Amino acid sequence: MIGLFGQERTRALRGVLAKEGTVCKSNESIAEAFAAYYEEVYTLVTQILEEDCAELLRDIPLPGLSDAEKGDLDAELTEVEVASALQGLQSGKAAGTNGVPVELFKCLGSRVTKHMLAKFREAQEVGLLSLDQRTLTIVLILKKDRPLERCASYRPISLLNTEAKVLAKALATRLHAIIAKLTHPYQSGIMPSRSTRLNLRILYGVPSYYPWPSVPQTQCAHS
Fold it and tell me: Partner of 138 at 20 to 30 A CA spacing, among 101, 124, 152, 204?
């Protein structure tokens, strides 16, 4: 599903430009135009071969996990993990396709977590999440001062159902215990309890140890 909101009535979307330049006005054609646009944006153009990746990483020492750590990650989820993940979700967020907010699940507590756990374990056995768990709503937010009729003017966000959020939260919590072991100490982006301050200090200090070669004035003028 594609939703559009946050717009004034006077700026209602009446159509979008497709890739070939035609104007799409029906709901179906508008949805198809957005789908085609984002498929092109997120499609990897360069074909990367698995053997090329293996060759690249062959001589690079990569961190690994012990058998015990691998076993902990692969173990079945527990109801305690599911309950903790549910309570850790932020309230007040938009619901997914089923329209059930996280607040209702929190109120139900153990009456719903045991059913969630059963569905998660079933998905693990068959290797596929249920349709409800893997279905989401894509909402398009108009960027500031952008034309309404262009697909590139919108920022897509995904609204997941609460069950999918709980599963993702539970798995992320497991990874949190070992993620620092698998990432370089200088990796600060999207890493909990790490800051970019140290990296910035190192960056500022590098020129003092390795000064850049002087550039002739004439080269600067022509650059």
Answer: 124
Query: 40-66 burial string, b = 16+ CB within 10 Å, else e?
Result: eeeeeeeeeeeeeeeeeeeeeeeeeee
More confident residue, 66 or 211: 66
pTM of the model: 0.74
| Number of domains within the chain | 1
Name the residue range of residue 58's domain. 2-222
What pLDDT band is residue 2 in, cutting at 50, 70 and 90? very low
Which residues are CB-neighbours of 19 under 8 A, at least 6 positions away?
33, 36, 37, 40
